[in-house]
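Researcher: We're teaching a course module on how sequence relates to structure. For the next exercise, students receive a sequence and then see the predicted structure as tokens, so they can try to spot secondary structure elements on their own. Here is the exercise chain.
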Amino acid sequence: MIVIDNISIIVIAVLLVLAVATPWISIFVRRPHPKQYETDGEDPEDDTPLPGITVVLTPHENGQELKENLPLFLNQQYGGDFQVVLVIWKSDTEAADILKGFSSNPHLYVTYIPDSSRYMSRKKLSITLGVKAAKYDWVVMTEATNKPAGDNWLATLARNCREGVSLVLGYTYYNSETSSYRQYLKFVDDLYLMRETEHGRTFRCNSTCLMFAKQAFVDWEGFRGNLKYLRGEYDFIANKYFTYGETLLETDPDAWMEEEEPTDKEWKDKQLFYQEDRKHLRGRARHRLPIAFDQTFLHLDYLVILAAIAYSVITQKWVIAAAAAIAMIVTTCIRNILAGKALDEWGVDVPHWKSVWYDLSFVWHWLSYKLKYAKADKTDFISHKI
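Model: And here is the predicted structure for the students to work with:
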């Protein structure tokens, strides 16, 4: 006969309440949603002509991707004027050869940077030259390795070009060849960042697609203040140029972009350089607070379950062990369902059942790169050595 005492009742109640309640303390519940509009690139009720837009690409050693993706940018179905500015290194003969095949395209403009530059990141120099070469008032900064969602990508972004707006953040996701863990980690970061922007705050931009007014770039003196940092171009622009009411988030699937799979080195560099760059961004503590809140309840949920199992073994109160097993199944299933809805909604190719285990690993992943950063030579993160 199974006897359930008061302690067992309390423990079982706590287990079940936490199992049902804590999965809802998650970014997947508070997540932003894609906002799709019925449009062919122009609002049928708006006769305002589409503005001129410059797309700035800064490829380096991306010959194959440039060859595949450049036509996707040049062949946009856009009702206004647009140009694609390519900024390449003088020594990049592969890119130069590829561009010969596009030399007659009226939308293409090519400029060059020297192979060596001092006291600033070459990437930031390339972007700055590209913006200066832009002949239109709006600039889209993205990568030649990205694939636009379709022919209406530029027109979908352009509907945000209006008075009172100076910065527009786009959404990009890793292609399906990328490991599911890396896709998932980027996606969760994106959700937190997009939610912040929707609520009137922008910490950084984890996606490689930004549109801004050229005059804003000039007024804010480009990358002044962070020129020496080798990475973080999108983060620094989003953080520095953000103004409440003047920054928008474009989430229409027609405006999405697919990023190529990062190499192991690219992935490692991205994580390590962020450890440096985040120290120079406004609102760091405010950004970390909801992440810490969610992670605390996530781990509390499972720690309580494990503690209950340990207690049941020590006291041989097996009814608690059974309740803990049920709580584990219930809380995991709820979390997987909530994460799965978000993954499907945003087109991320990750098996739903992996989401909980990935979530539990995030804090350890972050700590591992924090330790690697602590051991690294800090001059590796800047363009000139002291």
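Model: If you want an answer key for the exercise: The beta strands are 53-57, 82-89, 108-113, 138-142, 147-148, 167-169, 172-174, 209-213, 247-249, 257-259. Residues 39-45 have pLDDT under 50 and may be disordered.
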